[in-house]
Amino acid sequence: MGAVMALPRTTRTARPSNPNNLTRPKLTRTAGWIAVAFGAIHIVVAPLDKRDVWSDIFEQGPWQTISLDVTPENLAYSEAFWVGPASCGVPVLLFGAFVLWTAKQGARVPAAFGWTMTAWGAVLAALLPTSPAWALLAVGVLLVLAARGPGAAEAETAES
């Protein structure tokens, strides 16, 4: 009979000392995916919703239609511009990608990002309750919970 060899210690997976630490990355990833979805949907849906206006803009030229001096004649063009390419869709998509990247690196997103997103989402949702601003509010709350949730104090001291 041959000798039984034990696996080297380096191949064993270390168990987390605090199982509650597993929630933080999940909350962070969820917040990141909500932000990515919000941004992507905004980027795709907004121009589709105004495709007749965008057709006019491309036909007449953007320098002839889009202006910071909004008049009744160019209101539809300005609205299409500010709801489409000049909207918060791209920055929120990039923010969500950053949050996902941060979570993949095993790092913690600072609570200030969550608090800022929470405040921004709350203001937008209060001004227009039927808007998708509630998604931004959810992203902020999830990031705050992930940064301040169970095990955050240990993570802060370990990161220092």
UniProtKB/TrEMBL annotation:
Compositionally biased tracts (Polar residues): 10-23
Transmembrane segments: 30-48, 80-102, 134-153
UniProt xrefs under Pfam families: DUF6463
Annotated segments matching region Disordered: 1-23
InterPro entries: DUF6463
Alphabetized UniProt keyword annotations: Membrane, Transmembrane, Transmembrane helix
Protein name per UniProt: Uncharacterized protein
Taxonomic lineage from the root: Bacteria, Bacillati, Actinomycetota, Actinomycetes, Kitasatosporales
